[in-house]
Amino acid sequence: xKADQSAVATKFNDASKVxxxxxxxxxxxxxALLGAGDQYQTITAVQKMDSDAVVSLEHVAGQVWMxxxxxxxxxxxxxxxxxxCEMIKKRKEDWGSDVRIIGLSIDGEKEKLTxxxxxxxxxxxxxxxxxxxxxxxxxxxxxxxxxxxIDKTGxxxxxxxxxxxxxxxxxxxxxxxxxxxxxxGCASVDAPADGGEAPIPEGYSEMDPKTLEDDIK
Length: 217
Prior knowledge:
This protein is α/β, with parallel strands linked by helices.
């Protein structure tokens, strides 16, 4: 289900547990997932790479963000993170504070993140450690690398594998000018310009919230 149906999902899950609690090997649940087209929800309970303070990643209006979920032990994560650093070095003068690239490590230990980033000289990216945060669950990040691009209004305009965005510089420049980006994993895919019915996003199974409410009354 979509993010704005979380209350219905919770109500259904609570009711279904009563029905299935005495039945072995049966688990019925639905989830309301955040995805492209939804407003970014502040990620909480993370730590900066160089600090033990617990902080939140609260979007600032007017900024374009990319949050890169990654890990030092993940081979496919290394080239995208290196590219992130190259972009920052290349464009930091004209991007200024308009674009933020945030690395969010899911490593088990922060020291591994710190040592890896320092060794690679990847400090140009803002690095955070997931720590005790539930952000991976909130954003249904089941594997890395996984990125989210957030526009100036705080809307998630892309969510998925970084390989699906071959020209991130162009994406950021477009979003700085309040233009849209398109393609697999983008918010524009979920909202057809012709007003037709949008495809079901990856990770969703379309369910009618009214039917759910009727079933659990």
